[in-house]
Amino acid sequence: MSTATLPVLTAKDFSSDQEIRWCPRCGDYSILAQVKKVLPTLGIPREKFVFVSGIGCSSRFPYYVDTYGFHSIHGRAPAVATGIKLSRPDLQVWIITGDGDALSIGGNHLLHVIRRNLDVKIILFNNQIYGLTKGQYSPTSPVGQKSKSTPVGAVDHPVSPISFALGVEASFVARSVDVDIKHLTYTLERAAHHKGTAFVEVYQDCNVFNHDAFLYASDKNMKPDNTVYLEHGKPLVFGKDRKKGIRLNDAMEVEVVELGKEYREDDLIFHDEKAPNPSVAFMLSRMHHPHMPEPMGVFRAVDRPLYDAGVNDQITNAVAKQGEGDFDALFNSGDTWVVE
After folding, report:
1. pTM
2. Which of 5, 14, 20, 319 is the most buried (most CB within 10 A)?
3. Does domain 3-234+273-311 have CATH number 1.20.1740.10?
């Protein structure tokens, strides 16, 4: 179907008839709303979208969008999505997952879908807790996190989803916050238009088991001094009065400086999301509250060969050289025997 003949869609057209079963005031509602806002702008028919999820609160997402979808098994959404995208490259495939689903049992699957650069969009809802199973600590929970499973505090060092994605050479990596409506919408739009694996971490408030874990990055009075927004080609400036910046010092480490007499904007890091080497982006991903302001926005957006395109090119070339396959002939080739 030509995009010129497509009916005009709205966010309401992507709302399913299913009752939304998330806790009141959960951050998931905002993420769902912004996704439904972005989908009709893409010029893609509803039947060409597929949402795939694993297990967890976030993984109920496919029920709430009026598209095709799979509520798959714990941690295996990337595997299911890979099969879908390889067999139907014409579909736009979204993976919906959480910090526990993606980075615990699903860590291996997430690693490989990112490194392969499958043309899918991944939204990782990070609330630093297991919500569906009632409040155990997760792979992203900070050291000292008290939970149902760590009553005296977690001793594990947490996983940084952004560092993880950059470490396996993700072609698109971004971070946003559930209640930052304008920024989240922009970030999801960027991800939707990216060719390749687009990985978006969203700080999401679990108001029942880990409320206000990201208050420093979501409260309008607190976030100016605790976050720095990444804009391609612009210096890393932040703070309520825009008088602070991030620079690389002589030891090649990121540091916060005051702008004024000693340092100017020209001394700061100028963000380059298209840099072929992700080293600076990785250093930015290691900036964590409360010691440093946390970056929000697109860390990296580069072009890389697509896994699904490469596999399908191999199939096309094989058929061109050898003709269409004969399954019966293949099945009965080689040694066979009859059991009587």
Report:
1. 0.93
2. 14
3. no
